[in-house]
Design brief:
By secondary structure, the chain is an alpha/beta fold. The chain has a single domain (7-241), classed as 3-Layer(aba) Sandwich (Rossmann fold). It is built from eight helices and seven strands; from the N terminus they run E-H-E-H-E-H-E-H-H-E-E-H-H-H-E. It has helices spanning 22-36, 60-77, 97-110, 132-149, 157-160, 190-198, 201-204, 210-225, and strands at 12-17, 40-47, 82-88, 114-118, 171-175, 182-185, 234-241. It has a seven-stranded mixed β-sheet with strand order 3-2-1-4-5-7-6, sandwiched between helices. Helix 1 (22-36) crosses helix 6, helix 2 runs antiparallel to helix 6 (190-198) and helix 3 (97-110) crosses helix 4 (132-149). The longest helix is centred in the N-terminal third of the chain and has 18 residues, at 60-77. The two termini are 15 Å apart.
Length: 243
């Protein structure tokens, strides 16, 4: 396991996720803890989530607009106000050079110390986090961190045309992968995590009163695996040193 930077060393964090709601299922409690400590967090959603939902009466364009609004509302529950969308196709995401450039651009704009993204590896124990879009977003984000954003000669138009200087991200946190190692106690942020997920009504509304119970089951299992005391709740990550 890599040494994890203390949050006191972190000023800015960029969260890169494939779909609206991905950050809230995996990491909203952790993000709420970061913003409580005064860390500036930016969300970057690679797609608008237009392939999600359960209502055939809603057009895909309407769903995309709805999910953007839901993500903005969910972000506020975690203390995040800067939410950006790249608009790549939901369900057909690939880790292309264009996507790497788009993420590298935002890295250079935000200049984060830490990036949180999805694991590019398939998790055979829990398959849901390994949606192809998740793995593509994680792979492109990692490539954007290293080598793209730090190399002034990668995507030279970012510097020449947009004035975006190279930037080195010191650390990447991966969510949903097969090698969990770093456990974050989010017991105190649990209610805000639930509120963030309820904001995604088009995706979670059908879960009703069962949503908190489902989340407690996941998070208490994480806490036990991480050796936390009984009754605690945790989110889990793999940490990669990218300095």
């Amino acid at each position: 396991m890599s040494d994890v930077l203390d949050d006191s060393e972190i000023e800015r964090i960029l969260v890169v996720m494939a779909h609206p709601d991905d950050v809230d299922f995996g990491s909203a409690g952790t993000v709420a803890g970061w913003t409580d400590r005064g860390i500036e967090v930016t969300y970057l959603m690679v797609t608008d989530g237009d392939a999600g939902g359960f209502d055939d009466g809603v057009t895909r364009e309407e769903m995309a607009a709805l999910r953007r609004d839901e993500q903005r509302a969910a972000a506020k529950c975690a203390g995040v106000t800067d939410v950006r969308f790249l608009g790549h196709p939901d369900g057909r995401l690939e880790a292309t050079l264009d996507l790497r450039r788009d993420i590298a651009r935002v890295i250079r704009q935000v200049r984060p110390d830490r990036v949180l993204t999805q694991s590019p590896e398939r998790n055979y124990v829990r398959i849901a986090p390994s949606h192809p879009d998740h793995r593509a977003a994680g792979a492109a984000a990692l490539d954007a961190v290293y080598p793209d954003a730090r190399n002034p000669y990668a995507f030279p138009e970012l510097l020449a045309e947009e004035g975006l200087e190279a930037w080195t991200v010191r650390e990447v946190w991966l969510s949903g992968g097969p090698a969990p190692e770093h456990y974050v106690d989010v017991t105190g942020q649990f209610d805000r995590k639930v509120a963030a997920l309820r904001a995604h009504a088009s995706q979670t509304g059908h879960m009703g009163d069962g949503l908190p119970e489902m989340l407690r089951g996941w998070l208490s299992g994480n806490a036990r695996a991480g050796g936390l005391p009984e009754g605690r709740l945790a989110e889990v990550f793999q940490v990669v040193d990218t300095a």
